[in-house]
Amino acid sequence: MHRFFVLYFIILFTSCQEDSIIFIPDQTKEINRDVVFSKIIGEKPYYFIPNIDGKYIQIADYLIKIDSNTLRDNKGNSVNNDIRLEFTDFTEDKLHLLSSNPPKLAHSSSEILHYFRIAIYHGNDTLYNISSPIEIYILTPNQVGQDELFYSFDRTKNDWYQGVDQNNIEFNQWNIIQNEQMYHVSGYKISLNSLKSQEFCIVKNPIVSNQEYYVKCTLTAEFDQLNTLVYFVNKEGNSFIPLQFQEGTRLFTSSIPSYNKDNLGDIVVFSDLGEEKYYFGTTNAVIGENTAYTIQPKKTANEDIKAKMLAL
Q: So where are the chain's domains?
């Protein structure tokens, strides 16, 4: 009888405890950069073209000219109807800029002037072959300086290439005709002989510097190199630098060429701890200040992260 009473008491006592869930961050899961930004940005914009007729297609500050019978399927047949054009301008805002993978230039910090991705589809097929050049005009009123054009076949590998000449793209002016009217435009022109290169980046001719300053950021222990992305984003222009995790100091840091000293910017943090929502944080920062900026990322909905990034 005594044993029965004790057993009954234990069952009664344990059944009265409230259930609780304690979240333990998944620190073995590696953050997938492309997945993070695709979820925050949302669907890629695309443009449906019922008929390719040689007219200019305008998307923001870009003009795209595709002549009839230019596009070819994988059997070599010309394709003119029901075309889907995907076009992403990575310099549209800071969020798109961070989702990009621009060319890395040693000992320099180049400003990206224009950076876009183009892909053309017919049904479920990606079109790569063309019979005549596709012309892309990047409209801008002024030349910034000596510029360089890079193109990429596979952005995930950062395999960027450039032409034989260092300054392989020039600012120019043209008269173009659209709907029997003539327009005077200025900017840059890229002629594509194939669609196998899908990303194009024009950078301001970089200033090389061997003297460097640092930007540093400190986070609490659950945020590390596996689950967290940290960037310094310049306020002016289109440039950013990833901050790398240092195991010894547990700081996220990066060296930055000296001519950027005193530049204003923002340190932004994205982290995936295995929960439904990402962790996000940001703070103002200045290049060259001998301090480690402290950020405490908070669980944030994707639409709120997007709004905060677009406000930078």
A: 43-204, 209-310
Count of alpha carbons within 13 angstroms of residue 308, beta-carbon side: 19
**pTM score > 0.85 for this model?**
no
Residue 131 and residue 76: Cα distance in Å, rounded? 9
Residue the block writes with tokens 């194009």: 200
Does the domain made of 209-310 have the CATH classification 2.60.40? yes
| pLDDT per position as a tens digit, 9-56 | 333 334 444 444 444 555 556 899 999 999 999 988 889 999 999 999
Tens-place pLDDT, residues 161-200: 876 554 578 889 999 998 889 999 999 999 999 998 889 9
CATH number given to 43-204:
2.60.220
SS (H, E, C) the chain: CHHHHHHHHHHHHHHCCCCCCCCCCCCCCCCCHHHHHHHHHCCCCEEEEEECCCCEEEECCEEEECCCCCEECCCCCECCEEEEEEEEECCCCHHHHHHCCCCCCCCCCCCEEEEEEEEEEECCEECCEECCCEEEEEECCCCCCCEEEEEECCHHHCCEEECCCCCCCCCEEEEEEECCEEEEEEEEEEEECCCCCCEEEEEECCCCCCCEEEEEEECCCCCCCCCEEEEEEECCCCCEEECEEECCCCEEEEEEEHHHCCCEEEEEEEECCCCCCEEEEEEEEECCCCCEEECCCEEECHHHHHHHHHCC
